[in-house]
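User: Round two. Same drill as before: sequence, then structure, for each protein.

Assistant: Same drill it is. First protein:
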Amino acid sequence: MDAAITASVLMVPVAPAPAVAAKAEIKVTAPMDLVRNRKARPDKWEQEVFQSELRKTAWPKNKVFATEGSKGGRTAFRVMVPEYFGKGCLSCHGTPKGAIDITGYPKEGAKLDELAGAISITLYR
């Protein structure tokens, strides 16, 4: 399984060094209807990007979304790197929708190559 997909599936939090944490944030997130781990909930900006960009059928697969804006009152460059469901994801996240998977969660009904989430990066000025 791809390392990036493994990190997305496991939602492993990464604690950056204090000097880096003041300048950047990185997290794995997903649209609210796909979030299993509360720590992975999208903030308002991330949720808007999922809805207005990454979930559009016209959005090219693997295309990164980036913009300059703000977060917490600080000027920031924000990036969303989309992640997609692979074959290995579907045993827990696939069909039939609503069936309980081996971890005790209901399956989402996902299909191969559908948007699963994103790596969200914030770089502060």
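Second protein:
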Amino acid sequence: MRFLQGRREPCPFCTNSQLKEGKFIEWTYRNPLLKAPYRIKDTIVEYEGRQYRMEFAMDVEKEKQEAQKLDLAAVRHYEELINECFLKVRAVTDMDEALSFMLHYLGTHISCNAVMIYESRERKWLLNTYSWSRTEKAPEKKLLELSVAEPVTKWYETFFITSRCC
């Protein structure tokens, strides 16, 4: 709440009570901290017997600029592709298998050369723990010092120091 919305209490517009596994709720919200409108998509994902809220936020202004550059139908296609991937992967019970499937699915359908997931190590490193590559050779797994991964530093501090994401 504090990091994303600048609030100390739950947001009055919280959609948690409306969320259902496998269904997305879409809405628009102007974030007071970022002073920008966002298109939000929320759902519930179950993992190891617990339910987690998953939220995607797309900057409406940037989305408009990008839509002018790209064919809007192609943008919707990729959005549907990602949603389809999440719906398919939630049926897989083994996490390693699910992540491998997701990386392969997204990589092949979005024409990527490689897709990687990084995990935190010792609160100062990021380790490439899962990867997919279009070539036979898997991408090299690397440790990145957190200071090198500047774009994720604020997220890292929020999740690991305050232990709260909303």
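The mean pLDDT is 76.

User: Perfect.
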